[in-house]
Design brief:
Elements: H1 3-9, H2 13-16, E1 19-31, E2 54-56, E3 62-66, H3 73-90, E4 94-96, H4 120-133, H5 135-138, E5 143-149, H6 151-159, H7 167-193, E6 198-200, E7 214-217, E8 220-222, H8 249-261, E9 275-278, H9 285-292, E10 296-299, H10 314-329, H11 337-352, E11 360-362, E12 368-370, H12 371-388, H13 393-407, H14 413-424, H15 426-443, H16 456-468, E13 471-476, E14 481-486, E15 489-494, H17 504-511, H18 513-522, E16 530-533, H19 536-541, H20 543-546, E17 551-555, E18 565-567, H21 573-584, E19 590-594, E20 599-606, E21 609-617, E22 620-622, H22 629-636, E23 642-643, E24 650-651, H23 657-665, E25 679-681, E26 693-696, H24 703-715, E27 720-727, E28 739-745, H25 751-754, H26 764-771
Parallel strand pairs: 23-24
Antiparallel strand pairs: 1-3, 1-4, 1-5, 2-3, 5-10, 6-8, 7-8, 9-10, 11-12, 13-14, 14-15, 16-19, 17-18, 17-19, 20-21, 20-27, 21-26, 22-25, 27-28
């Protein structure tokens, strides 16, 4: 089947690069000094056997992170970074070791604990691996790249080539062909992406005694010039060679069964090939393949690259993706036992050979080729074929990048790492990297990597859901509308707090300020005095009642403070008229209320409990006795919680006309130098959106006001509710004549309570998931 011509003839180039991409990554947990962690898998992630994203591999200390399937490799990589951040920030006095070879290991093997599962068979399999391969070898960590072509592409390719095969048979042949090519060229991926050639002394055993190595530091050794110890002869591979055919699915299955019956391995999952054929389920692997065919391929080549935070470079994923596409389009061939053996030998040569010397690959049973020259030749071959297929030059740029590395004989990642270890020490170098990456995760911990387009509150809820092991789906990403599923329970959520917990009547009641006031009043709660109007003329006719000021004019239904005008002093008739028209432009009904006194607080209520209270303080700086207001603002804006465009928990403070006028009223300007510890306010309004501070006062707030907030939410039968309350004196525990309720919010933000400028993270996402009926695994 000439797939290249079919793609060109049927204009399938636009679908050729589409696919389904997933990643799996292992990292060892260490203590802060670079010793293997001896603690159990973190409880916060629940049952490791059930969690779809965060589990363990061989050892209890070996975290495995698994992404869902995404439409691009970059999206999968983004989610892996999100998982990496999530795990890093949940560890207690531990770090994620960023390197494929393990950290300093205990002298006694029995301290290296196999991953413990409730199902004893899972644990017993790991004990079998420990006995057969040794615990140290099983601690080698890496990356698996899962890929399948888009179904829409395969369907059209199948229809373009009627040949009597069923679609399932056609699909199997596609992935078998791709697999053969990947195995043939896997050595190139190892050589270009290999990232480990240094081992700690505690890792080495008698098995490595005969291998050529140099003592690099007091406690580490260098396998001279090697690219990837993990992929080499002493790496993660079966003890015995046995042939597995990729020429047909049934031969593949039969050969693995033969390896099991011959005692080479005890199960299909012990077959440590660079590429595995995968079915639709994780259990009954061979039976599933036999009955349902190949669903995707699993590439197991990539080392952890410690030179990047997550251990995976986009370029490495792109390289593999292009090789897989090339495998589809290139002329077909069958792989004999001898070719399969040579492919394995080439993988070891690429992994273990000293790069400072010439490396010769097995081109055939009788011919060898220089590795670098052969690598350039293969990359050019792939480039030519994919260009002919119409793939964009931008997509193919990674081939130029790697070809240039070969032509320039650039040092491998492994060599760069070895140089750094020699200069800094084994444990110190990798722990310093791990600490650096932890700090990066911490710096933007309010974000959920790959989902920055969502509102912050939605990001926070989604991050918590992933930590709990809930499956998620976007119903309308732009509208922040998602579904969360656990077992048979599915909940639909919009913008983090719009859920099925509150009925439509409750939401409508909270949207309507007149109705809200009536319900609050009926429940004996204090609200601002005022009147509502539906006609401009009626409101204007009562100007004399309001002309002395201290009033608020606002639409009956509004959000984000839109349409509101406050008169603290007497207002002219023209200003009054303008404010009325402004309010009516947002709603057909408006309210004119007395301006209540006090500071405004936001209470967050879930299911009859007040879980958080926040005070929003106007933009301000605190003097140090030597810096100008402008300089103090610059320093305060360095806080990573501050940004622009509402993508961070706090907004940067700006110095514009409004701030200049407000300072002028205080006899100050931007160049004024405030006294030490003297607080200077830059605005009157307390909005976070204009640089205000969010101060958590949950523990300072007297219980009486929390009870009022709960009663206010109950007045509308609201289960999730934000209650805005003015309090004259927070130190007064008796609320009589000391508070006024302003409004209820049916969609209260949770990010302001999760990442306040000062105070505790109130972890409201967890409380929402609890209320929705989900359980942490």
């Amino acid at each position: 089947m000439d797939f290249l011509q079919l793609v060109k003839q049927h204009n399938l180039t636009s679908l050729l690069c589409d696919g389904n991409f997933g990643l799996e990554k292992e990292n060892i947990r260490t203590d802060l000094n670079g010793n293997l962690s001896l603690t159990p898998h973190p409880e916060v992630f629940g049952d490791k056997a059930k969690h779809p994203y965060i589990t363990t591999d061989f050892a209890e200390a070996q975290v495995e992170m698994v992404t869902p399937i995404f439409a691009t490799s970059q999206q999968a990589l983004n989610f892996m970074e999100a998982l990496h951040d999530l795990v890093s920030l949940e560890l207690k006095n531990e770090l994620l070791w960023p390197y494929s070879l393990p950290p300093k290991l205990p002298i006694e093997d029995n301290l290296i604990r196999e991953a413990q599962f409730a199902n004893p068979e899972i644990t017993e399999y790991r004990e079998y691996l420990a006995a057969k391969y040794g615990k140290r070898k099983q601690l080698l960590s890496g990356v698996h790249f899962n890929f399948s072509f888009a179904d829409s592409f395969l369907q059209q390719l199948y229809c373009a080539n009627p040949n009597g095969l069923s679609f399932r048979e056609f699909k199997d042949q596609v992935y078998l062909k791709v697999a053969r090519y990947y195995l043939k060229f896997c050595w190139l991926v190892i050589y270009l992406t290999g990232a480990n050639s240094v081992a700690h002394a505690t890792y080495l055993s008698q098995e490595h005694a005969q291998r050529k190595k140099t003592k690099l530091t007091e406690d580490s050794y260098y396998f001279d010039g090697a690219s990837s110890f993990r992929n080499g002869v002493s790496g993660y591979r079966n003890l015995d060679y046995f042939y597995v055919s990729y020429n047909s699915l049934y031969d593949y299955i039969a050969d693995i069964k033969q390896a099991i019956s011959s005692g080479h391995i005890i199960a299909a999952k012990e077959y440590y090939s660079q590429l595995r054929l995968k079915g639709h389920t994780k259990s009954g692997v061979l039976d599933d393949l036999y009955n349902n065919g190949i669903n995707y391929v699993e590439i197991r080549t990539l080392d952890l690259n410690p030179l990047t935070k997550v251990g995976i470079t986009p370029e490495s994923l792109e390289l593999i993706h292009l090789i897989l596409i090339y495998g589809l389009l290139a002329p077909d061939f069958l792989m004999s036992d001898e070719e399969y053996r040579l492919a394995n030998q080439n993988q070891i040569l690429a992994a273990d050979s000293n790069r400072s010397q010439e490396i010769w690959l097995h081109y055939s049973t009788t011919e060898a080729k220089h590795l670098q020259n052969r690598g350039i030749e293969v990359l050019q071959q792939i480039y030519t074929t994919l260009s002919e297929a119409g793939i964009s030059q931008n997509k193919l740029a990674v081939l130029d990048y790697y070809q240039q590395r070969l032509q320039d004989n650039q040092p491998s990642y492994a060599c760069e790492i070895a140089k750094q270890v020699a200069e800094n020490g084994y444990s110190d170098y990798f722990i310093n990297l791990a600490t650096k990456y932890f700090d990066l995760s911490k710096r933007h911990n309010y974000q959920f990597c790959g989902f920055e387009d969502l509102e912050l509150s939605t990001q926070i809820l989604l991050k918590e859901a992933v930590k709990w092991g809930l499956k998620f789906k976007f119903l309308d990403r732009q509208d922040n509308f998602i579904s969360l599923t656990q077992g048979k329970l599915t909940q639909y959520i919009k913008q983090a707090t719009k859920t099925s917990l509150d009925n439509y009547a409750t939401i409508l009641a909270m949207e309507n300020k007149l109705v809200t006031k009536q319900l609050l009043t009926d429940n004996g709660l204090i609200v601002a005095n005022g009147e509502n109007y539906t006609q401009l003329t009626d409101a204007l006719a009562n100007y004399s009642r309001y002309q002395q000021g201290k009033i608020v004019i606002k639409p009956n239904s509004t959000n984000f403070g839109q349409g509101i005008t406050i008169f603290k002093q007497a207002c002219s008739y023209s200003d009054f008229n303008y404010a009325l028209n402004y309010a009516f432009s947002f709603d057909q009904q408006i309210l004119i209320e007395q301006l209540a006194e006090g500071q405004e607080y936001r209470f967050f209520v879930i299911d009859g409990q007040c879980l958080a209270v926040l005070y929003r303080e106007p933009a301000n700086v605190i003097g140090d006795g030597k810096s100008t207001i402008s300089q103090l603002v610059t320093l305060k804006n360095l806080d990573p919680l501050r940004g622009t465009g509402y993508v961070t928990p706090l907004e940067k403070i700006t110095l514009g006309e409004t701030e200049a006028l407000f300072l002028a009223e205080q006899g100050l300007d931007f160049n004024s130098i405030p006294e030490f510890k003297h607080k200077i306010y830059l605005r009157e309004n307390s909005n976070i959106s204009t640089g205000g501070d969010s101060l958590d006062v949950t523990e300072l707030m007297p219980k009486a006001y929390k009870r009022i907030a709960v009663k206010a939410a109950n007045s509308c039968q609201a289960r999730i509710c934000g209650v805005d309350m003015l309090i004259r004196d927070i130190s007064n525990p008796y609320p009589e004549n000391n508070y006024t309720l302003i409004e209820l919010n049916f969609n209260p933000a949770i990010h302001i309570h999760t990442y306040p400028y000062q105070g505790k993270n109130r972890k409201l996402a967890k409380k929402i998931l609890d209320a929705l009926g989900f359980n942490s695994l």
